[in-house]
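Hi V.,

You were right to ask for the full record rather than a summary. Here it is.
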Amino acid sequence: MSLPPSLELVRTVADLRAKVSGWGQAGLRTALVPTMGALHDGHLTLVRRGRELADRVVATVFVNPTQFGPNEDFSRYPRDEAGDAAKLVSAGCDLLFAPTVDVMYPAGFATSIDVGPVTTRWEGAFRPGHFQGVATVVTKLLLQAGADVACFGEKDYQQLCTIRQLVRDLDIPVQIEGVPTVREADGLALSSRNAYLSSEQRQVAAQLNRIMRDVIARLHGGEAVAPVLSAGTQALLDAGFTAVDYLALVDALTLEPLPEPAPGRLICTARLGGVRLLDNMAV
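Predicted structure:
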């Protein structure tokens, strides 16, 4: 591919480490932004945050096969390396690491990382094996890059909790920076999978943010958790969502359900046809 002149591309771990090591020897801090490509402003916000926290920013683009289930969209997941590179330049990225599957999972690769209870509920229940794939590839990227800080979006909140847990448990010397969700003007959280929505589905999707905010307002008003969540689920179905996988008030660290109104996180995944929309908000 033809890269913009100010963005360097590397595809091997050795080249990535050499570049970051050189920056370190020069006294420069490095931020890492792992992505699966199909970049939007949510990803670019992570790059810009990395630029605020460090002197150099490395973005990775790797569509990780181990975090997709057998009936999920790995083969049709959007890929546009040249377009991604141009966007990264606009956000101030210094280096793109775009490995092949063979680089990340060479012949004989056998290790999988299970982060435990934080992964078993919610997305973990609906996507068996997903978080093992996420944890394994993120651990590899953190160790490969040796960055000082790594930026992840709060939109995938359970993923962020999983990554924070594995970094603590494995003593990986990196700061994990959670970055607030970037939204469209109507409140829909930015996601690469939003491109799969029809125009009619896109109008319905905007109701997710509105209904979640209504649920939070009712919780702040002192209403009981269970009936408010039940009403919120029904409101989503009435708005046109095909199904609601979960709508839950959880502890912000452990993701355990909170039976009474308390500070935590409201998390939700709702379906529109074959598209699953994730969102979460602080309570």
